[in-house]
């Protein structure tokens, strides 16, 4: 059993390294593996348990999001593996079948000493339009910004192995600005009929350039979209995507991220519903609409490969350039920033505000600890429900509250408040809704000690006006995951992302309604999630890191039955201190480790 599995592990590792083309870039960073994922602990106090975060180092924008023809989602991201701030930008890479359970992959695109790989996108060149893929119909092409001291240009790299390793195109750059610009970046490419379309930002001119191409190598200017909605100080990370309209055919949406200069500070994302004819985008109107009313949802990207007639999948960076390089996870846990929860999006024409992009969390599937809620009350009335959840090890919780029978706006009254708090320190994050007046919903991270008390940009309250539906209903859903809270109002008509870093673990939930009109009914339920990282992250990434190219097969007698047992953090500390020693320890304990990590299925 022990040796069969060990050989299997080695075989998997070798096939994924030797039979694949090597990336043309090699990392100049000492200590950063070029042929294996970077290991991460994923059990630290602030580490989200159902969100993606990098194993170590600094992460910002999602990049190159696409779903391959096997149904695997690929998430690349702006990644500095050597520091806890941005600078040495690579493309990190992770894959998932459900967008909650992630497997780290080796870095996909490497910075060099004098150039960084900035944001961009990925397409699948099914018809070999690029000529890179004479023998396959699943060739992957990354289109990204190469940032150097003097200039930003658009480069491409291609992958024969479905997006795990890349070869930079010898004819790069494929697009540069004339005259040269240091503010020309973040290409997002989509397929429109028989052509490729790129949207790319002239960041400080507030222009999104539209380009077309037949081969991904030669790009022709088609049109510009300029000075719409909010300007801030820079436009970044444009996205162009087609999505259904609730109850109707698809429409187009142009998304533009703004930083710095968001109305509430730092980074924000705006979008324009509209029409696109292959070369020109026309917004339905001049209004600025934002994707999220919090401060931690930026540079979001739609996954390539989902037809425009289906709901799209959106994921964003859950932080803000005003404080992302200072948040305390850096000093104490060695990582910074997570991604948002993955959302399903479509357009709707809703109460009063008109066109709206609706975002709801993708189904949680198998994530629940149990289908049975931790607590529930389907006729709460004007009352409270509370639950303490020390037994939910992940500390990741989902709650839903549905209210119906609310009278016409003018007469509606009362409040709904919820709190997630720490039994240890009494810190809390909270939110609430006013059913009267302006129908305001608010969120607060004010009662969290530490970082928020000292950082002037870590604004502590957010709100939005959310008119009550004409059918007299209001629905609130929330997901909390150690250091991130996301709320969705009325099935995603408004949503907000808020990060926070409490000194004590939040382990209690309370929801209270008060002063609601007679006849209003309130239904609440709260569920716990299992961690998607607990059973696999450290173990799997560590194992492949060790086995790739280095796993020597030990003879049976060298399996020391009395060897020290290493678990969780210890594996990593060991690995950091002395890779060779750690490798021996891991091999000695492999049998038990494989049990722990539930790796049998993975290797089979
Ligand atoms: C947005 C951004 C992009 C750029 C990348 C660099 O957050 O500034 O415009 O490509 O980050 O990391």
UniProtKB/TrEMBL annotation:
<protein>
    <submittedName>
        <fullName>Glycoside hydrolase family 32 protein</fullName>
    </submittedName>
</protein>
<keyword id="KW-0378">Hydrolase</keyword>
<feature type="domain" description="Glycosyl hydrolase family 32 N-terminal">
    <location>
        <begin position="51"/>
        <end position="345"/>
    </location>
</feature>
<dbReference type="InterPro" id="IPR018053">
    <property type="entry name" value="Glyco_hydro_32_AS"/>
</dbReference>
<keyword id="KW-0732">Signal</keyword>
<dbReference type="InterPro" id="IPR023296">
    <property type="entry name" value="Glyco_hydro_beta-prop_sf"/>
</dbReference>
<dbReference type="InterPro" id="IPR001362">
    <property type="entry name" value="Glyco_hydro_32"/>
</dbReference>
<dbReference type="InterPro" id="IPR013148">
    <property type="entry name" value="Glyco_hydro_32_N"/>
</dbReference>
<dbReference type="Pfam" id="PF08244">
    <property type="entry name" value="Glyco_hydro_32C"/>
</dbReference>
<comment type="similarity">
    <text>Belongs to the glycosyl hydrolase 32 family.</text>
</comment>
<dbReference type="InterPro" id="IPR013320">
    <property type="entry name" value="ConA-like_dom_sf"/>
</dbReference>
<dbReference type="InterPro" id="IPR013189">
    <property type="entry name" value="Glyco_hydro_32_C"/>
</dbReference>
<dbReference type="Pfam" id="PF00251">
    <property type="entry name" value="Glyco_hydro_32N"/>
</dbReference>
<feature type="signal peptide">
    <location>
        <begin position="1"/>
        <end position="15"/>
    </location>
</feature>
<feature type="domain" description="Glycosyl hydrolase family 32 C-terminal">
    <location>
        <begin position="414"/>
        <end position="527"/>
    </location>
</feature>
<dbReference type="GO" id="GO:0005987">
    <property type="term" value="P:sucrose catabolic process"/>
</dbReference>
<dbReference type="GO" id="GO:0004575">
    <property type="term" value="F:sucrose alpha-glucosidase activity"/>
</dbReference>
<keyword id="KW-0326">Glycosidase</keyword>
<dbReference type="GO" id="GO:0000324">
    <property type="term" value="C:fungal-type vacuole"/>
</dbReference>
